[in-house]
Structure prediction request, 167 residues.
Amino acid sequence: MLYFFTLVIIALTVYYFYPEKMLPPGTVIDRLVVLKSKRKMEAYSNGALIKTYTVSLGFNPSGHKQFEGDGCTPEGTYTINARNANSGYHKNLGVSYPNDADRAHAAKYEKSPGGDIKIHGIKNGRGYIGKFQRWHDWTHGCIAVTNAEIDELFIAVKDGAEIEILQ
Prediction:
């Protein structure tokens, strides 16, 4: 039994510390595709897939975000419209949700569509969680990556880049 637990600890240590492949220097990401059902985000440059990230989503990840507080990550095509180097979640890239259709849908129900959807790192002071944040969906509708990953995305993703979020 002790042997088993030793192997588990070794495996978790390797998972945590094993370095991820970094983006090539000077890479410009012009399109992101989030595959919610696979918990993956693909980064493209000039039509070529450059890197795939493992992500965490909203705590209620199935389906399109409809209202503030529903815990869903939106689906559809948006743009990267902001960046914040001083985020409460290390750094973030803003996603242009809600669009006109999202606002109109929520208005039919006299509710807010929500907003502040971001691609972000781990909550400040909790960065030690690292890759383990990927093990469950924990955001309020955002797309979460590790702090090291948002550092590289923050530099590489161009303003106005398209982000397509698919189920």
